[in-house]
Design goal:
The chain is an alpha/beta fold. It folds into two domains: 159 residues, Lyase, Ornithine Decarboxylase, Chain A, domain 1 (Beta Barrel), CATH 2.40.37.10; 245 residues, TIM Barrel (Alpha-Beta Barrel). Helix content is 29%, strand content 26%. Helix 2 packs parallel to helix 9, helix 5 packs across helix 6 and helix 8 packs parallel to helix 9. The structure holds ligand LLP. Ligand LLP binds next to helix 10 and helix 11. The site of ligand LLP has 21 residues, from helix 10 and helix 11.
């Protein structure tokens, strides 16, 4: 996390000490680095520049309008999975021609909205979805550009909850059904089959699953073309891993080197759908220790952020580094549990973590919280969601206000009060 660095025992985001940001905006708060986001985008664009490639940012990883706008202004498209994500992407200025729509459960309303918006491609995940899309497109007098999302039965070697391209997962169309469904698609007047899509899972730290998927997909594309189905785009989804702890994921350049012979041979356009790679290491979650508690010989740092702000540790057993934002020089304490205020024993940010001695009032930074933290946040225990702050050099601004207690009850009503 290069844009988060130490200077005189204080942790900075770009040129701003995180302790100052905690003082100014309160806690819990998500702090994003513009430079980190841009840097990741540039690395991807640099590695993929020799391909006819669209980078579609995965909106589910972080859907804040300012983040999407930052991506859009650098020529990035969007990978969406709902009408709400489409609404956000368009509002942030992402051109519809750079938006691809995946997801197993697209509704009539969502399909209508996406057709009316003239998005680049629908990644269709079942025969019934194809059928529905066709009838809606016909009614609307539109042609739907389509890729079938294939389930290639490749093991992404990641957590079982975030594996998406294996037999038994709900995603994609079984490999054995693909040619038949493409043939059917060509017979539908309002469907234009032009692509193949795959998503393997996330995060992926080795190139092997991509190699396996490319072997399968290349053969398929060649067969489809031999049968007159003009596949011109390959959407190669699979979440590039990042370093949360000591992982050493492949680089975008290594990814490009792996795919080059396949893409050159197939002579096709390419789409990639990274979310975590761009955002994961681009933010921290700041939290204040409310209490230090000892119980039966164990120490708990009880913080004002909890599983409603960052559910990844309990949900996926995910590791996030955690550090005080100021080094005090105090010796490491016994391992501690860093927990939130929520009434569940699954409410933890870290368990048994070696930490320096800390006290009530100290600020901790939970690292690598730019992807799948705010977007998975909830109001559980009626806790307002944290604010989001974007740092750029010396300056910072609120890109999402902290929710209030009033926000929590907005839209609810009591009998007789409307
Ligand atoms: N495209 C599709 C169709 C996806 O399903 C996903 C992630 C992505 C793109 C983006 O993957 P990324 O580049 O961000 O790794 N909540 C989990 C991650 C679930 C990802 C599911 N799909 C987590 O916190 O690790």
């Amino acid at each position: 996390m290069n844009n988060f660095h130490w200077e005189s025992n204080r942790l900075f985001c770009e040129n701003v000490p995180l302790s100052d940001l905690a003082g100014e905006y309160g806690t819990p708060s998500f702090i994003y680095s513009t430079a980190a986001i841009c840097n990741r985008i540039e690395l991807l664009q640099g590695a993929l520049e020799s391909f006819d490639c669209t980078i579609c940012f995965s909106v589910k990883s972080n859907s804040n309008l300012s983040i999407l706008q930052c991506a859009a202004s650098r020529g990035i498209g969007a990978d969406i999975v709902s009408g709400g994500e489409l609404f956000r992407a368009l509002k942030a200025g992402i051109p519809p021609g750079s938006i691809v729509f995946s997801g197993v459960g697209k509704t009539v309303r969502e399909l209508e909205y996406a057709l009316a918006s003239s998005i680049r491609m629908f990644n269709v995940e079942s025969e019934s979805e194809l059928h529905l899309l066709s009838s809606i497109a016909e009614r609307m007098g539109k042609i739907a550009p389509v890729a079938l999302r294939i389930n290639p039965d490749v093991d992404a070697r990641t957590h079982q909850f975030t594996t998406t391209g294996k037999k038994g997962n709900k995603f994609g169309i079984p490999f054995t059904d693909v040619e038949r469904i493409y043939t059917y698609a060509t017979e539908l007047p309002n469907i234009q089959p032009l692509g193949i899509d795959v998503h393997l899972g996330s995060p992926i730290t080795s190139l092997e699953p991509y190699r396996e998927a490319l072997d399968v997909l290349s053969g398929l594309i060649i067969n489809l073309r031999a049968n007159g189905i003009a596949i011109e785009t390959l959407d190669l989804g699979g979440g590039f891993g990042i370093t949360y702890s000591d992982e050493k994921p492949f680089t975008p350049v290594q990814f490009a080197d792996l795919i080059r012979p396949y893409i050159d041979k197939l002579d096709c356009r390419l789409i990639v759908e990274p979310g975590r790679y761009i955002m994961g290491n681009s933010a921290v979650l700041l939290t204040r220790i409310t209490y230090v508690k000892k119980s039966y010989g164990k120490t708990f740092y009880i913080c004002d952020a909890g599983m409603n702000d960052c559910i990844r540790p309990p949900l996926y057993d995910a590791y996030h580094a955690i550090t005080p934002v100021e080094k005090t020089g105090t010796a490491p304490a016994e391992p501690v549990d860093i927990v939130g205020p929520i009434c569940e024993s699954s409410d933890f940010l870290a368990k048994g973590r070696e930490m320096p001695v800390a006290h009530a009032g100290d600020i901790l930074a939970v690292m690598s919280c730019g992807a799948y933290c705010f977007t998975m946040a909830s109001n559980y225990n009626s806790r307002p969601r944290a604010c989001e702050i974007l740092v750029n050099g010396d300056s910072s601004r609120v890109i999402r206000e902290r929710e209030t207690w009033e926000d929590l009850v907005r839209g609810e009503s009591l009998p007789g009060t409307g």
